[in-house]
Amino acid sequence: MLAFALALIATALHISLCFAGAPLLMGLVNKLRAWLLGRRGPPVLQPYRHLAKLLRKSTLVPDTATDLFTLWPLGVFLALAVATMLIPSFATGMLTAQAGDYVTIVGLFALARAATMLGGLETGFSFGGAGAAREALFGIFAEGALLVLLLAFALLAHDTSLDGIATVFRTAHIGISVSLGFALAAMLTVALTETGRIPTDNPSGHLELAMVHEAMGLEYSGRLLALLEFAGMLRLLAWMNLIGTIFLPFGMARAAEILSWPGGLALWVGKLLVMAVALSVFEVSRAKMRVFRVPEFLGAALLLGMLASVFLFVAARIGA
Amino acid sequence: MNFAGLAIALPFVAAALLGLVGKPRQGAIGNAVASLALFGLTLAVFWGHSEGLVAVDPLAALFGTVAGFVGLTAALVNIGYVSADAVRMPARRWRLYHTLFQIVLGASLLGLYADNIGVLWAAMEGGTIAMTLGVSLYRTPTGLEAAWKYFILGGVGIGLALFGTMLVYLAAQPALGPGFAAMSFRALSAHAAHMDGALLTLAFVFILFGYGTKAALVPLHGWLPDSYAEGPAPLTTALSGLLINVALLAILRFRHLLVANQDAMRPGPFLLSLGLASLFLAAFSFSRRRDARRFFGFSSIEQSGISAFAFGIGGPAAIFGGLLHMVLHTLLKSGLFLALIRAASLRGPAAPGNYGFSHMRGLLQANRKIGWLLAGCIFALSGLPPSGLFASEFIIISQTIQKNPYMSLPLGLGLLLCAVAILRNIGPLLFAQAPHEKPKPAGRSAWLIAAHLALVFLVAFAMPLPLVHLLSHAAEALQ
Amino acid sequence: MSLTFSLAHLLGGIILLCAFLQLSQRRLAAMITLYQMEALVLAAAAFWQGFAQHEINLYLTGIITFALKAVLLPWGLREIVLRFNMVRAVETALPMAVSMILGLALIGIAVLVVLPTTMSSISLTREDLAIALSVVLLGLLLMIVRRNALAQIIGFLSMENGLVLAAIGMPGMPFVAEFSVALLVLLAFLVVGVFLLRIREHFDTLDLSGLEKIERRGR
Amino acid sequence: MGVVGNSIGLMFGLPGQGMHLHLDALSLLFGCILLPQVVAASVAGMRASVAFWAFVLGMALALLAADGFTLIFGFELMSAASWLLVMQGDRKPATLYAGVAIFSGACLIPALFLPASSLAFVLIALGAGAKAGLAPLHSWLPRAHPAPPAGVSALMSGGMVKVALYVLIRYAFINLAPAQQPWWGEALAAAGALSVLIGALRTVLEVELKTALACSTVEHVGLITVGLGLALYAKAIGDAELSGVALQAALLCAVAHGLFKPLLFIGAGEVKHATGTTSLNWLGGLMRGMPRLGALMLLGAAGMAALPLGPGFAPEFLLFHAVIGAAATGGILARIGFSALLAVLGIGAALALGAAVRIIGLGFLGRPRSLHAAAAEDMRRGPFVAMALLGALAIPVALVPGLLLDLLNPVIMLLAPEAQTPPLAYAPVTLLILAGLAALAAGFVQTRWGVRGLREVPAWNGGFGRPPAWLPFGDPHTQASATGFAEPVMRVMGKGLLGAGMTDPAERFLLAPLFRIQTRLIRLAERVRRATIRERLAFVFAVLVAFLLALGLGQGG
User: pLDDT band at C203, cuts 50/70/90?
Assistant: First the structure.
């Protein structure tokens, strides 16, 4: 009973922290990037203000759109919100652990992607369509790579839920293996594409022809845009959580032990900081690539993911 | 009573009468009346009793009934055919035509009912000559050419069959001695074990080539497609299937002698190779045919090959399948040709040359009933359910797998190719855009055709038990 | 070996020789003459067998053979040759030597096939059967290696002679006369067919004439 | 009629033997898959067609068959009736369709009579696979399935392929079980993976809505087959849990596909009825004129794309787990193969997602691309009832797949008696609750701080000029087209896998050579047919001499 109550509290904490903190993370990344480029940059709290401003603006709907126009941002938001809730942040053993299977998470990302693409096609003009077409292309390899990665994790952890993977990776002695390195590289590649960062997409780009994510939300305004933007922030956080849970599970708290929470929380914030810095550094040091090079980039991720499993087979001398 | 003798005599008497008197239409009606009486007699044969040269076993009686039925329906459709086409030939030639019609019927019955292998041969010869005259009846160049082909190839076949017949007689000498006994199927099959095996094998090869020519097995088939396409359709197309049955049954009976004899070679390989050759040649000849009668001539080659294949596989079940296939195919083809005659006459005279598929395309616009019936007949020919042929082909394939698994591969392939080639024609026939025309009445023959189709279905899938016993006993006796 | 058999053999041998020589002839007239000889010997053989087997039927067969095959048919054939002006040599499909070698091979096959048979108690020996089979096969060969319709008919007639030769040798076989009559009807139709159809030179030309027209019309 | 053992005999059928029918869990399951589709198709307008009911009868007989004859009879009756229906729609693919149908019959009949062996399995897989549209024997399916009226297309895609898979399951798992080999399963999984890849790729590329849906059927058949293959493999190597999960995946996928695919096909028929075309390049904005159709199609598309909370996700989820489970077994090559399989399934799922988005986004959202699409009126009553029925049945599949899996247990026990079925780790209701929480929060934020109301304004058209007056809905060329949407995928994957002409590799490497051989043989047969009398005699003579020689040598030697 107590354990359930603690898990409930931990889950509530996890959800509220993630929802409240997502804009902060985005602001932090933007600030860091600006610093690295030698600019002063917007304040760290700017995303909150931005969202609040958008909420108060009137919402415009193109006359060429159908009645479902308002549905798609909600779909994107809900899918990513649920994904964020399911991905553990600072602790394992939360109430959502049971539902948080890796495949479900991948499916939720796909759902968000589908809703984004449909929103892009909704406007009835060319940019949304082009963005959606590219997104569909990227998704093919991203999803393949993500699923192949799961194989490596599942073989190591004998579990496919994120919570289980984190628990095993935190406690058992896995060591630093080649395959996990490959897996990390592949995961990062997919994460960069999915969150729309350089080198596959430019989050702050405004050249319509080169845009992917932004192009699909071009016609959204007011509260619908706020929803989309917030969903984007959630997405960034969710991916960082995902990577943190799988590759940096050390120091994660146990939901049933309240004493381990402070440490877990602190380490979580620390990990997010590190990842934000790493992301910023990576982004400013790379140029955006051409659209049709992205599939090659992701194809490499897919192969890396396969290699991760193959190395596992070889390392464990399975079957040979 | 000796109904069999009556059944054989009736057509020849009718032939003489029809040859002497009557206008075309009267002749056609007389022909139909004679055929009706004949059908009744063939039914009565089941309860009759006969001995001597003509001694009927139930299998022959069954095929005789089938022949009677086919003859009756062809004669009925023939009335309309003659009425519509009477001016094409002088009245004298129409008389000859009706005479030939009855002679072919009589020869088929004689060949089926005959217990004596010499009488059987004579019946085949008579049938051949009558058919030749029928094929050349219109005196067109193509008709004469087809008749000439029929004559030369058929004549050679008849000669070889006679040689085979004599060899059988010779082979029977050690067991039966000189005289009529050595030419009687009953005596021969009873004493087959004591016959001269080597001579019997030699005899079978000649019998196979002789009667195989009449059964149109490849490579002996050369006369068939052309002759089917020429001459008055009720005679040269609808009736000619009967002679194929006579020939196939003869081959089956002679085959039994070999099987029953220890010293003789197995007849299987000969029959299998000819059967498969027929199947494949037909499969690849279908696709470029534009004339429906010639097309279905090739289909007869295919079906005859399937039956021969079944006989080659051997064993009671396979022979059951082969016999069933013959019965069903005869009924189906008869219905098909009647439908074809009706369909052609919807678009002008039903003369040779008017049976092109392009001539009949878009049949549904001319007459829905006839169109669907013809399509149904063609479809049934492909052997897909609910066609009755499915049952017989299923039996044959399943027996092939059990007896000779590797043979099922070419058989399946051949059936596949044939069925696809046959089905291909249905689409344009039914649905193609046709020249605008008014729908024409179907006439009463629609019922006849439907009766054929229903009969095929019922015989295959709801076969009455007596018939099952008849066929299975016959198959057992001839295995 | 009794006289019955040796004489029957002798007659059979002559028939085979005639059939074989027909292969070597280029001119129709010579073929018809050979056929006539063949028919004469056949009639003699039928009489001899009838005498040996005491069968009225065989005498009848001999008379029919003589009257129709040795007299009437050759006359008709010669009439055709004259009327259609076919006195010149006919076209062969195979070189003469090849067709003769084939003929020899066929006789070999006939012997090979008949050899394993055991005919202990039968008056017709295997030699007789082999001869009859050879004549049948040679007749067929003649039909194939000559392009002329009439030559093919002569081949057919020769084959039919082989059949009758086999039939008269069968001990006590019923219907021999009926068979030969039935065969003759067939032959008569053939010869009359040539008259009616005016087939001058080839089966081939008959086949090909207007073939294109027919092809266009759709077969 | 009589009862023998647990089967019912009919006095109708093979002479002297009749037909035998029986019902077990497996046939019951497939019967349940078929029933809603049959009802839906008949409601959607096929009630009066004799061929349709013959088609249904054939499927029912095939499912209930207790002997080989009945099975093949039903199977081929199903093929024949559907052939007629295909031909009524479009004559061109009908012949190919008939050929494939008879081919599968010709493979199945021998397989029924052979003793349990690998040969029998191969024949079954070829026969049933050809009928189910399993790669590489699938290329007829995208041609034939779109041809007939929508109700029949629906039943062909949703039902007929299931009957073929039923035959495969019954024989591979039950009748041939004594001879089972691990490679059977591996081969099936490989064929399934190929189908998934080609089917999904072509679904994205096809412009015709119905053709795209047919290609999607190829993909889903591939998914089911992968599941079956894994189960067969697991059964052969004795992995109880894997075989359970894989069977769950395959059967649930069959159930789900049997609901959403007919729904989509009937919807496509309605699109055709309302606009006169199914080409995505001429559609667009149908959601305005046909909102009910759009909503139902959205549900179907969610299933087709295997999105979470849709009917298609649970099977896909199970399938991924099955593949992961399989990758933990066997030799290293098999493992690498299974990891590749996983990648293929992932790519296939993403392609299916793109395809579903394309169908909904281009067909139902945005602006119309033709006047017909602009003038589309709402759907007819019959098809709406049919689609609503299928949609309503799809909802439990989407939301409570766990309960459904419990119902599948008897079937799984029948197929693999030792299989274990772990509880499903995918809980759509939990996801729904969480999403509800998030929606509540968003709603709260909106009401607390946001402003209400929407204002309709002209969208920025990307700088194109004003459309001409006869295009009230704007110039369609300023909107992404179906071809354009697929272009990136075509460029990156299509050219490599399908070649420049976008022809299916199965057609290029399998059908085309076969046709060439056939043409050659036809020419040969024509040569034989044109032979002169002399040549024909020569044939006869040659064969006679050959037979005599065989005889002489056979007896002399």
Answer: very low
Range of the domain at C58: 3-217
**∠ CA D459-D460-D463 to the nearest 5 degrees?**
150
Q: Residue D40 pLDDT more than 80?
A: yes
Q: Do C207 and D541 touch (CB under 8 A)?
A: no
In a domain, B207, yes or no: yes
Q: In angstroms, rounded to a whole number, what is the distance separating the alpha carbons of residues A69 and B20? A: 92
Q: Does A126 touch chain D (CB under 8 A)?
A: yes
**Spatial separation of the C-alpha atoms in residues C174 and D290, rounded to whole Å:** 89
Amino acid sitting at position B410? P
User: Which residue ranges make up each domain of chain D?
Assistant: 2-434, 507-534
β-partners of residue A59 are D454
In what order do the strands lie in the sheet containing D2-4? Answer: D2-4, D7-14, D18-21
Q: Please state the separation of Cα D494 from the chain's center in Å.
A: 21
pLDDT at A155: 83
| Residue B462 domain-assigned (yes or no) | yes
**pLDDT at residue B269 greater than cutoff 70:** yes
Mean pLDDT of chain C: 79
Question: CB distance from C161 to chain D under 8 Å?
Answer: no
Do B231 and B310 fall into the same domain?
no
As a whole number of angstroms, the distance between CA A262 and CA B227 comes to 101
- HEC states along D13-62? EECCCEEEECCCHHHHHHHHHHHHHHHHHHHHHHCCCHHHHHHHHHHHHH
Cβ atoms of C169 and C134 closer than 8 Å: no
In this prediction, residue C190 carries a pLDDT of 74
Give the count of alpha carbons within 13 A of B464, CB side only: 4
ipTM: 0.90
C13 vs D25: CA distance, rounded Å: 80
Q: Nearest to residue D490, comparing CAs of D502, D508, D479?
A: D502
* Measured distance CA(D307)–CA(D297) in Å, rounded: 14
Domain-embedded: residue B133:
no
Stretches in chain A below the pLDDT threshold 50:
318-320
Q: What's the CA gap between D440 and D385, in Å, rounded? A: 33
Q: pLDDT band for position B457 (50/70/90)? A: very high
- What are the chain C neighbours of D555 within 8 Å (beta carbons)? 113, 116
A252 contacts A166 by C-beta, under 8 angstroms: yes
Q: Which amino acid is at D254?
A: A
8 Å CB contact of A66 and D342: no
Name residue, tokens 């004799």: D50
Radius of gyration of chain C (CA): 18
Q: What domain count does chain B have?
A: 3
β pairing state of A59-62 and D454-457: parallel
User: Are B359 and B245 found together in one domain?
Assistant: no
Which residues on chain A are in Cβ contact (under 8 Å) with D349? 110, 143, 147
Tell whether B12 and B71 lie within a shared domain.
Answer: yes
The answer, for C183 touching chain B at a CB cutoff of 8 Å, is yes
B394 and B271 within one domain: yes
pLDDT at position C204 over 50? no
Of the candidates B265, B408, B431, the beta carbon closest to that of D88 is on B431
Q: Which domain holds residue B342?
A: 267-479
Cα–Cα distance between D415 and D173 in angstroms, integer? 6
* Band of pLDDT at residue D400, cut at 50, 70 and 90: very high
